[in-house]
């Protein structure tokens, strides 16, 4: 298990480094291929979405698109996807199909579909992006009844999949910034990708933070309707101390940037700002260390430096400072 742990940590570090070098489609293919080689699964899918259950992207790994068409037809017969249902009920926890239903108890139409597309073993994880209601589902398949997924696979999946999502988000935002002509260093800026009605579908950690600091920007996890109208007509808007700028990606998608003049993190370096945001969103030293290819002790030392520079006592005060007062009661409960 220790050797596997080292391999997982290496892969996580590679996810964040490769995210800055590849296009989004290249990155998705690379990430799933590397994960499949390490965990020995044969195919799978990865989908991201927004509430209540609207899917905004779908990536199929070693499966044809007709698999999704077949799956849709099976559901139309009234068959239930038991794995999907259990995954929805247990967000944040990996679910193995063979642990919740015997193969001979599967609906005949669903069983036929699984046999046709080599779905003999399956493990799925659904989770929400920290600080948001954006969700991700990643499912792995094995085409062999004699290679079941196990408890170790569950633990690895729960460790790895959130990093796959976050690194892809970094890749996507960097790619789109270049597409719309943003060439300056924006690593500490707040960005989100929205659909044509202002629903946020992808964003970076800084956007989550800045959106929380200004309740006038976000309504739920949608740009407030009045603000969205201003952005569509003028391509910029001012909300208290913040400026919002809008960049059109295509007819259905936009990039939104928040520019904040008064930033409580201004006294920190860019790397310290990144660590502070992750701490405020609840990430552990170990998780941050994996994402930044550093040791947990290094992150802990940097956190101490952050608290000293900001003249605060620790993580709790940092979290309170970087979230609006409407969040404070939730944090103390």
Automatic annotation (TrEMBL):
It comes from the Bacteria. Pfam families: GerE (PF00196). SMART domains: HTH_LUXR. PROSITE patterns: HTH_LUXR_1 (PS00622), HTH_LUXR_2 (PS50043). Residues 261-326 form the HTH luxR-type domain. This is DNA-binding response regulator. PANTHER family: DNA-BINDING TRANSCRIPTIONAL ACTIVATOR DEVR_DOSR. Keywords: DNA-binding, Transcription, Transcription regulation. GO terms for molecular function: DNA binding. GO terms for biological process: regulation of DNA-templated transcription. Gene3D superfamilies: Winged helix-like DNA-binding domain superfamily/Winged helix DNA-binding domain (1.10.10.10). The keyword Glycosyltransferase does not apply.
């Amino acid at each position: 298990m220790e050797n596997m742990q080292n391999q997982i940590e290496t892969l996580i570090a590679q996810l964040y480094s490769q995210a800055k070098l590849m296009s989004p489609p290249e990155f998705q293919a690379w990430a799933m291929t590397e994960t499949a080689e390490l965990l020995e699964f044969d195919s799978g899918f990865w989908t991201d979405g927004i509430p209540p259950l609207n899917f905004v992207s779908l990536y199929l790994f070693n499966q044809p698109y007709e698999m999704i068409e077949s799956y849709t037809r099976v559901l139309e017969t009234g068959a239930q996807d038991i794995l999907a249902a259990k995954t929805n009920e247990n967000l944040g926890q990996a679910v193995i199909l063979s642990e919740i239903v015997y193969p001979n108890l599967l609906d005949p139409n669903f069983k036929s579909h699984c046999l046709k597309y080599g779905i003999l073993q399956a493990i799925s994880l659904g989770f929400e992006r920290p600080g948001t209601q954006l969700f991700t589902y990643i499912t792995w398949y094995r085409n062999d009844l004699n290679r079941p997924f196990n408890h170790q696979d569950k633990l690895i999946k729960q460790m790895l999949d959130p990093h796959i999502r976050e690194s892809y988000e970094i890749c996507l935002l960097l790619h789109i910034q270049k597409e719309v002509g943003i060439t300056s260093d924006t690593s500490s800026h707040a960005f989100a990708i929205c659909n044509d009605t202002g629903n946020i579908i992808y964003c970076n950690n800084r956007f989550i933070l800045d959106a929380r600091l200004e309740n006038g920007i976000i309504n739920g996890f949608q740009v407030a309707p009045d603000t969205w109208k201003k952005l569509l007509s003028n391509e910029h808007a001012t909300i208290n101390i913040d400026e919002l700028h809008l960049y059109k990606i295509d007819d259905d998608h936009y990039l939104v940037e928040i520019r904040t003049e008064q930033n409580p993190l201004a006294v920190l370096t860019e790397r310290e700002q990144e660590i502070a945001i992750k701490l405020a969103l609840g990430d552990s030293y170990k998780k941050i260390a994996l994402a930044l290819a550093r040791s947990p002790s290094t992150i802990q030392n940097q956190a101490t430096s952050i608290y000293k520079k900001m003249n605060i006592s620790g993580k709790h005060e940092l979290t309170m400072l970087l979230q609006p007062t409407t969040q404070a009661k939730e944090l103390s409960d």
